[in-house]
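Progress note, sequence design subtask.
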């Protein structure tokens, strides 16, 4: 037991007992996502026609599901009579990088359902379908899994950009604008600029530029800087990193809003006169997804973690700040090098062929 070395700087123990089943299968069904998550499972291969017939049949019996045939979803289910085991999610640092790898591979053409089934067979469900009373179901819809996987992978990629000084990458989702003088009165005279983030939505009045419109507003989630635009442009890297981390932290905190505070035991401090008790605190996320966001948060609280440029795993600099390390290991460094070499060769071959 205990936490992975990358999380040990965190002052409170975190624990999530994740359930993994031995067998999973893809099925079909209607999903309810209200307070009580519910799946009306259908036989595999159910099409619209069969679904409509089923709805008609139920209606004749006096049951109206209020669902349409086209609302059938792909659902991954633990097979009935499947064995299960558990592990503590905080004993591993592989969860986020492996989920990011899955997203990347699927975007490159790997079969989505096969990839998800494989990931879940190893790590279990993200647990998106959790009831108001905390019960996690033994099924998960494809749509929910994929949406959450992409969201987390995109946020992790942003974190990689921040730690790897990828200024071009950060410029795609962060912009700085000058604050309107009226806004500076409210926010503080010392503030000159603020960061805005992709998708850069702002209400523009006629004849106004995006920068002017964005500089006129200031609300929740906005972060002000005392530096002027000129100062930021002169030395942009650190400003983009700070603005990027602010965004990442904000998104993580949204996911951790309802994280559970609990305890593993109660101690009585021996004392003849006073009764003093002490809790041994533990933070318990509601599902694996929240455990992963908590791990992300814990990494932000450490002072020396970077995301490997090649494999996407977080790695500990362990006080080695004397050079800008980009890879977690020599293996990744060499893999990246030979990948670049092969790419260059491919390009050269391409150019050679096109010139002859
Ligand atoms: Zn690596």
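Output:
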């Amino acid at each position: 037991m205990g936490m992975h070395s990358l999380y040990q700087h965190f002052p409170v123990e975190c624990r999530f007992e994740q359930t993994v089943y031995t067998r999973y299968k893809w099925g079909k069904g209607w999903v309810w996502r209200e307070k009580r998550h519910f799946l009306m499972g259908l036989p595999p291969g159910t099409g619209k026609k069969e679904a409509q017939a089923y709805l008609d049949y139920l209606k004749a019996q006096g049951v109206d599901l209020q669902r349409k045939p086209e609302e059938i979803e792909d659902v991954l289910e633990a097979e009935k009579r499947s064995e299960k085991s558990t592990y503590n999610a905080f004993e591993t640092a592989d969860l986020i990088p492996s989920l990011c790898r899955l997203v990347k591979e699927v975007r490159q053409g790997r079969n989505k359902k096969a990839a998800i089934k494989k990931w879940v067979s190893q790590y279990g469900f993200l647990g998106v379908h959790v009831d108001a009373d905390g019960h996690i179901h033994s099924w998960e819809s494809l749509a929910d899994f994929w949406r959450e996987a992409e969201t987390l992978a995109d946020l992790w990629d942003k974190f990689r950009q921040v730690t790897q000084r990828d200024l071009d990458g950060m410029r795609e989702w962060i912009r700085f604008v000058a604050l309107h003088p009226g806004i500076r009165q409210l926010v503080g005279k010392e503030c000159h600029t603020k960061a805005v983030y992709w998708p850069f939505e702002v209400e523009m009045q006629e004849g106004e530029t995006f920068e002017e419109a964005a500089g006129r507003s200031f609300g929740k989630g906005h972060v002000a800087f005392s530096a002027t635009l000129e100062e930021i442009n002169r030395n942009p890297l650190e400003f983009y990193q700070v603005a990027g981390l602010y965004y990442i932290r904000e998104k993580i905190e949204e996911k951790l809003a309802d994280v559970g505070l609990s305890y593993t035991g109660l101690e009585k401090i021996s004392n003849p006169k006073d009764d003093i008790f002490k809790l041994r605190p533990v933070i318990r996320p509601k599902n694996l997804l929240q455990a992963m966001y908590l791990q992300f948060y814990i990494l932000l609280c450490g002072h020396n973690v970077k995301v490997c440029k090649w494999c996407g795993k977080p790695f500990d600099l362990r006080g080695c700040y004397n050079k800008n390390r980009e890879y977690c290991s020599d293996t990744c460094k060499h893999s990246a090098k030979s990948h670049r070499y092969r790419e260059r060769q491919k390009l050269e071959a391409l150019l050679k062929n096109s010139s002859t």
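Residues 330-355 form the longest helix (26 residues). Work on this subtask will continue into the next period as scheduled.
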